Design the sequence.
């Protein structure tokens, strides 16, 4: 892979100027901003304001196993496929969603529903990879997933915080969609949390003092540089960068600790693990982490679909609404894109176990916040939800839209060796009507 | 188990009631309608009495009056001879899961996901009691569900049971809780693999002598997506507050959706299923399943006739008349 020049701008001159101004301001407040992991950095109004203006971020609420579009964003009440739930009006005239989502119904102005995904893959593993990466891997080329791309595009080179954090505590489906930096290398690999809200092994060992730890790092760096002399390898560079960030990451532990939040805020997110992880995600992006995935498994409702969604959708509704409110109140929503996405949706047909099976032909995702025309719906399914009736899009178009919403040129090329590799496949178009 | 007659239920049938001494059956299900069908006819045909606005999940008969309950939260009174609805009551704020009638036919009990059991006068639809003793949230902070209810044979008590295995026996006259029982094995929360639950106590019955309360559901689930857990029954000597029997079947997997005691109280019949369905005969003396019968559908509700020779069953796709002998 050729040299990867990091860019943190959407490309507009105004953005670049603003960032220079921001950096000047940051330099002036160097003592204050010495530790970017301190959440109270945002209490400095000018610095906080600029940070909020400049940096775009993304939180992916990953509904692993496949949430049903009919019980969430694309209800079909009264149809033979509709199931028992009613549709309710939202704050946007003409848009109805499932009665299981009354809180999101009140906040529809922030959200765009994409109801016309046809992603053609109903296998958990393959579909999860597709919807995490926006396309299929090639035999000799492993693509980075959304988190890795956004870590690279939106992360700060000198950042003291992780660029890509992923929470996924349930064991089911975890192996289907592991975070993957693909050809971008380990520098952009996720910090994956499986069992503990706070990263394990992040602290310096008790037997090593700070000076010793620094010196060990310097020795490792020196040896690496000697080894790298005369060698050209993107892997070596990426590996070295990852090590250079270790001390910053070690200092970021407190960002994961939701007990530092006021009780009032914690109560808004609720007591479930999903709620706590969404709150941690907000803390992380507020401190500059560009991408956080919150994995909520397991939606795979082959049996008792309606009981499953009766249990899980109210949680999604509550947590997503709390997250959007919190981001808005902090002035972060306009620069934070919140996505709900699964590997696929669920069949309109109801099976003999009152379940719905895997279905990738006509299902839904949502985009809220940054760069998005909230209060809108793209696409339409037919009366029974069996086919896309209008506005069909696939994973590529969805990803192009996500990139564009975040100010990233979806046609931008990376280079793997001498081969240019665009962010999305050539010819892919974003859904322009959804972009603010 | 031999099938005597069978008709399509127009989708999923969840509830069924039989007019005593006859082959006339009422049922309701996922097409929102309440039907009746007379199996004494050469070609039995289901005819709709009317409909709810969502799934029909409870039916109880008192003479010529039927009361149906639905996920729309309403109870509808039907004159089954005139074949028309005669009263509608907005009974619950959430899904009604079950409806039961007292042995004297004067009182209807309804349970719903608002976690309240309400007792109603059959004669005039008046609310008699609100019975509140089930938590709205599970220990893991998700919505709970109040799935089951049944009257004791003397009509003095009504029992209710929920998703987390909490059972309450109520004084049906005074409207007070008289005993609480716990069957936590019925709560199938999966804390590791999938972090959700779909079990709960789905069925409940008093023994003919009123001494025991039996509850049915599913045991620990291996694959929660496919109801891959053993059919489970627990029986309590409820006045003593003691669990008398805890049973998980080695042959059948799935939910026990309906339970009924043999009139003499020697055995208990459970019906239910997962992808497919079953009937399970459980002997109370030996505390063993003595007979396993595969059903042609996931069984949601059934009624034994007076001679215990025939079973009328409703389930996923069918209404069946089955020979109970064997």
Sequence:
């Amino acid at each position: 892979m050729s040299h990867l020049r990091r860019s943190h701008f959407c490309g507009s001159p105004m953005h670049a100027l603003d960032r220079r101004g921001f950096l000047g301001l940051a330099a002036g407040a160097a003592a204050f901003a010495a530790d970017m992991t301190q959440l109270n950095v945002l209490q400095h109004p000018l610095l906080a304001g600029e940070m909020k203006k400049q940096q775009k971020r993304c939180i992916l609420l990953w509904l692993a196993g496949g949430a049903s579009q009919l019980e969430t964003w694309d209800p079909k009440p009264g149809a033979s496929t509709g199931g028992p739930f009613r549709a309710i009006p939202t704050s946007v005239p003409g848009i109805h969603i499932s009665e299981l989502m009354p809180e999101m119904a009140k906040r529809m102005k922030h959200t765009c529903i994409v109801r016309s995904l046809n992603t053609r893959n109903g296998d958990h593993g393959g579909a999860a990879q597709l919807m995490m990466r926006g396309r299929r891997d090639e035999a000799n080329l492993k693509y980075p997933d959304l988190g890795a791309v956004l870590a690279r595009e939106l992360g700060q080179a000198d950042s003291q915080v992780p660029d890509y954090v992923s929470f996924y505590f349930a064991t089911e489906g975890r192996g289907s969609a592991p975070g993957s930096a693909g050809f971008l290398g380990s520098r952009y690999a996720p910090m994956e949390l499986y069992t503990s809200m706070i990263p394990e092994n992040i602290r310096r060992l008790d037997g090593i003092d700070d000076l010793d730890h620094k010196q060990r790092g310097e020795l490792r760096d020196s040896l690496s540089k000697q080894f790298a002399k005369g060698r050209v390898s993107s892997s070596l560079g990426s590996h070295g960068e990852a090590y250079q960030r270790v001390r910053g990451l070690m200092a970021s532990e407190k960002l994961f600790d939701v007990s530092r939040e006021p009780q009032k805020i914690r109560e808004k997110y609720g007591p479930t693990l999903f709620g706590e992880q969404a709150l941690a995600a907000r803390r992380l992006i507020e401190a500059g982490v560009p991408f956080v995935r919150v994995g909520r498994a397991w939606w795979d409702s082959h049996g008792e679909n309606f009981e499953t969604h009766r249990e899980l959708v109210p949680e999604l509704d509550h947590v997503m609404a709390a997250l959007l409110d919190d981001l808005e109140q902090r002035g972060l929503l306009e620069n934070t894109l919140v996505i709900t996405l699964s590997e696929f949706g669920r069949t309109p047909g109801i099976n003999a176990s009152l379940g719905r099976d895997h279905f990738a032909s006509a299902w839904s995702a949502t985009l809220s916040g940054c760069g998005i025309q909230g209060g809108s719906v793209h696409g339409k399914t037919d009366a029974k939800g069996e086919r896309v009736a209008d506005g069909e899009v696939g994973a590529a178009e969805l990803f192009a839209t996500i990139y564009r919403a975040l100010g990233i040129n979806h046609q931008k090329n990376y280079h793997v060796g001498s081969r240019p590799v665009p962010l999305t496949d050539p010819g892919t178009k974003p859904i322009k009507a959804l972009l603010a | 188990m031999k099938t005597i007659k069978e008709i399509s239920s127009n989708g999923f049938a969840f509830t069924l009631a039989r007019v005593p001494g006859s082959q006339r059956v009422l049922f309701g299900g996922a097409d929102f309608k309440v039907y009746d069908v007379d199996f004494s006819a050469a070609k039995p045909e289901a005819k709709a009495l009317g409909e709810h606005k969502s799934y029909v999940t409870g039916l109880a008969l008192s003479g010529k009056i039927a009361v149906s309950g639905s996920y729309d939260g309403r109870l509808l009174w039907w004159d089954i001879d005139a074949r028309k609805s005669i009263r509608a009551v907005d009974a619950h704020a959430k899904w009604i899961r079950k409806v039961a009638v007292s042995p004297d036919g004067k009182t209807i009990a309804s349970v719903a996901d608002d976690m309240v059991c309400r007792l109603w006068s059959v004669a005039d639809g008046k609310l008699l009691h609100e019975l509140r003793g089930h938590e709205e949230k599970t220990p893991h902070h998700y919505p709970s569900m109040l799935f089951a209810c049944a009257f004791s044979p003397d009509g003095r008590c009504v029992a209710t049971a929920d998703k987390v295995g909490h059972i309450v026996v109520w004084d049906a006259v005074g409207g007070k809780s008289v005993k609480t029982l716990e069957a936590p094995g019925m709560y199938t929360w999966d804390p590791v693999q999938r972090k959700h639950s779909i079990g709960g106590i789905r069925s409940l019955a008093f023994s003919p002598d009123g001494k025991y309360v039996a509850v049915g559901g599913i045991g620990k689930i291996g694959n929660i997506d496919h109801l891959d857990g053993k059919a489970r029954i627990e029986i309590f000597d409820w006045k003593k507050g003691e669990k008398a029997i805890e049973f998980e079947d080695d042959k059948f997997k799935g939910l026990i959706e309906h339970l009924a005691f043999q009139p003499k109280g020697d055995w208990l019949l459970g019906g239910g299923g997962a992808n497919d369905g079953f009937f399970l005969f459980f002997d109370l003396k030996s505390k063993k399943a003595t007979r396993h019968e595969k059903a042609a559908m996931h069984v949601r509700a059934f009624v034994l006739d007076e001679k215990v020779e025939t079973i009328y069953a409703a389930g996923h796709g069918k209404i069946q008349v089955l020979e109970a002998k064997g």
